[in-house]
């Protein structure tokens, strides 16, 4: 009794510890019990079979936890199945005249306890029996494939299986670096027993009259997909229009085009002076040019990747194409035009021709290998109305993912860019001059032009005169891109074999790199300036352009949709949206130097955020910039 009694004084603290331990043990038991109970609960898996011809039986095997396995020929729902990951192995369906293949041979789904999950077996790829897939590694071809007549060795495995009307398809191989797709018009045996096949060009829709493909993070996957190292000179000596205009090839090992196994490529050219080279370089100038204007262009980059590629077509035409390229790219331009009064001049060229192959891909669609070859070439221009010296040396680096989607006649941009500019040598005065040089990344599908992307860093120096105000020259650096699709690989859109669409201004950004000011305007005394007074705004197009540079993702082609906007001395603010008639808006605030707008902060509406009592986010950041009181009131921040 004494022992028990002696413990009683510790009861207060002991009871608290015991209570806490009991609560922890109880909570752990409840959690463990709930998990055990949840694991025993079943879910539902809905298997949907789509786009299979009427009366055809699907070939879908469903596998899941606990040895679950079922074979499905039509859409079906499985009730009370164990929670976990399920896999659908979707096999092709054979037909009398054509076979149907799934868009995705393997489909996964995760069923949660008590929940319902849907898995789709989409049969969207139709391969007629007249489409014959040849083994590119053992083609048995005698000679090349430069013309429409193909000769196969008598021992070729497919030599006796081809007939008029067939479409022959091959992937990347020793004799088919860009794949092969032809329609057979006639066959015969020569006196040596070899098979002679007369063909004509075919399109992807001839081999696959109906298909829906969707590939992401595409990489080169063939032993023949990596081009061998190559180096060639961009410019050969050309015939001059007069004694003072010539083009000479670049000196040194860095000239021309170089690609290698390290996944990089470089294109460079050194122009000693200007001329016109047929189909290569155009030079237009109303006065004789005796200088060396475009001294050097160098471009480099990592091997471009086809980040994503998808397309949807059938017998009626192409319904959707979506693609995006990924690349890390650098550029450098050197320009030197000595002082001379001259009128507008322009240099424009694209090299090399043909473009340089940098990567190739084989994308399987059922048994059909779809071969995509990526190429790069240089596009460059130097143009402007020059009044005095023009001399500068500039560089730019960019990391990007860019492309476009075309669906139902509507174009949607895909753009994500990061840019850095470097000024190696400052510019001299010019009325206006622009130099651009960049890359065209193009794709060929079985040798036919397809999606492409132009990435063109540009540099502009221009004089800005304000009536009654200051005069200054600005050097701007920018990155300009255009994306397009040529529909030749699919036989054209709406029956037009050469149809094409393009977004000519997919993305662009300009940045003032350096300014030269003379005859500056007198600065008003602070005591006579009312910082809260509303000032005249730039034209609405200028405000839209400044906002457009803030948009990085896909938006409506008409964006930005502008609402209210106001300006103050040195400041401007605008309310806008990326979609018409949208409740989701952004308020962009800019530092303002007359017509130029530089971004200061973007304010996003928030609701019921205890960490930010204002109705728009980043009010604290805006107030730290000490804008006019009228601007703070306009955007809705608390004073």
Overall 3D geometry?
Answer: flat
Question: What's the pLDDT, averaged over the residues?
Answer: 74
Distance linking N and C termini = 72 Å
Number of strands: 34
Task: Describe the main β-sheet briefly.
Answer: 9 strands, antiparallel
Q: List low-pLDDT spans.
A: 1-10, 221-255, 272-292, 521-532, 608-613
**SS summary, helix count:** 6
Helix fraction bin:
under 10%
Radius of gyration of CA atoms, rounded to a whole number: 33 Å
Strand content: over 45%
Going by helix content, strand content and strand pairing, the class is mainly beta
Write structural notes for this entry.
- With 639 residues, this protein is mainly β.
- The protein contains 6 helices and 34 strands.
- The protein has helices at residues 2-7, 11-40, 204-207, 540-548, 619-624, 629-635, and strands at residues 42-50, 59-64, 68-72, 76-82, 84-91, 98-102, 106-111, 116-128, 131-134, 141-142, 149-152, 167-170, 180-189, 195-201, 211-218, 230-232, 256-259, 264-270, 281-285, 294-302, 305-314, 317-337, 344-365, 368-385, 390-407, 410-425, 432-445, 448-465, 471-486, 500-518, 561-568, 571-577, 586-593, 596-603.
- Strands 15, 16, 17, 18, 20, 21, 22, 25 and 26 form a 9-stranded antiparallel sheet that branches.
- Strand 33 (586-593) and strand 34 form a beta hairpin.
- The radius of gyration is 33 Å and the shape is flat.
Features:
639 residues; mainly beta; 9-stranded antiparallel β-sheet; 7-stranded antiparallel β-sheet; 6 helices; 34 strands
